[in-house]
Amino acid sequence: MKTAYKYQLQPGSKKHLCPACGKRRFVRYIDKETGELLPERFGRCDREINCGYNLNPYKAGYLTNTEQNTWNPPPPPKPQPSSYINPELFRQSLKNYNQNNFTTWLTSLLDLATVNELVSRYHIGTSKHWPGATVFWQIDQNGLIHSGKIMLYNQYDGKRIKEPYNHINWVHKVANLQNFNLSQCYFGEHLLAFNPTKPIALVESEKTAIIASVYLPQFNWLAVGSLNNLSIEKFRPLAGRKIALWPDLNCFGKWSQKATELQKEYPRTSITVSDLLEKKCTFIERQKGFDLADFLTNFNPRLFQEHKKTLPELIREQWQGLNQKNWIISPIKYPTITRYNLEILTEDLNRKNGLNITPNQYLQEFLKLN
User: Fold this and answer.
1) Is pLDDT above 60 for 16?
2) Last residue of a domain, which of 20, 51, 79?
3) Could you tell me if 179 and 287 lie in one domain?
4) Within this chain, do residues 203 and 265 fall inside the same structural domain, yes or no?
5) Cis before residue 335, ω within 30 degrees of 0?
6) Phi then psi for 253, rounded to 5 degrees?
7) What is the rounded CA–CA span in Å between residue 57 and residue 29?
8) N or C: lower Cβ tally within 10 Å for the chain?
9) Which of 79, 109, 136 lies at the terminal end of a domain, its last residue?
10) Can you tell me the distance from the alpha carbon of 46 to that of 51, in angstroms, rounded to the nearest whole number?
């Protein structure tokens, strides 16, 4: 005879905060007769490996009222060490840009030299997961690769492909990396190591960060990925810097609330919220839910860009300011320049100009000057 159960896990996709780990991955029990939720301690967290919390009302004696009147949530599980992507897997994605819908769209908007610079600066990758897919790598200031977000864009208008389903995935999932513990960082966070004093601008999407960096280069542009990632923990690497938040249209209130929370936690950090879109966008643009990239691409990027010095110009300027007393050998004796000097020069040029060139690239450009 089949048992008729009074309580069951809440059907549907709605998730609650888990009383153990605090993540919104908790499915609560409901009373089938009344449709009401049971007390919040009853339910199951679907983070079975990293949390595993599961309190069944029958096993707890809720039905027979034998459950203890006092209840304390279990201690949170010990934090698991973060996992990182093998650099070789990362390097394998840095090619086939003619098969990358996102970079193809960029070339319709910007000149090829600028697109190449963006690809290099943000380490934009290509994925075979879907034909034309893009990888947005999350790399921190120490060069550790947290993972890569795989997304598919329309190569003609730069919009995300959301039909027949939302085309988003992660490299560690596609590569089937077992027991991978994802700990996200902000997209573009690696740039902070090269420009320690440059103001930071935060937007939601990776696409917006890349586009905005062309129009407003006075900022280091980073993407949080989602509003939930604008958290105290993930914001910590930015503490002490000058930060500007640039919310999408109709999101100013939520981002301002987040800014208040962050400012309270990090009082020595300058945090502002831009209301540019709220003031400038039209009614139609508001209905479409414009973000900063949508707004900026209405304008010619050359109107925003300052004259950018070429790599040879930067190298020549660097050499004109060299203090020979700090050299192991005199720069006048080139080409007997040591590898040490070459690495120092390259690191200095990258740090001061937000570049990511190799010592070999530096050497090739230097030889052209002599």
Assistant:
1) yes
2) 79
3) yes
4) yes
5) yes
6) -65, -45
7) 8
8) N
9) 79
10) 8
Q: What is the pLDDT of residue 125?
A: 98
Alpha-carbon Rg for the chain, nearest whole angstrom, is 26
| pLDDT, tens digit (0-9, with 9 covering 90-100), for 225-255 | 998 899 999 999 999 999 999 999 989 999 9
Residue 324: is its pLDDT beyond 80?
Answer: no
Q: Is the C-alpha dihedral spanning 17, 20, 25, 31 positive or negative?
A: negative
CA distance 34 to 10: 12
pLDDT tens digits for range 104-140 = 999 999 989 899 999 999 999 999 999 999 999 999 9
If one counts the domains in the chain, the total is: 3
pLDDT computed for residue 335 by the predictor: 47
**Domain of 21?**
1-79
End-to-end alpha carbon distance in the chain:
92
Q: Are 295 and 333 part of one and the same domain?
A: no
Determine the Cα–Cα distance for residues 176 and 170; give it in Å rounded to an integer: 10
Nearest of 146, 185, 149 to residue 169 by alpha carbon: 149
- Pair 182, 295 in one domain: yes
Q: Which two tokens stand for residue 261?
A: 């929370």
Same domain, 100 and 146: yes
Tokens of 258: 């987040």
Query: Helix, strand or coil for residue 162?
Result: coil
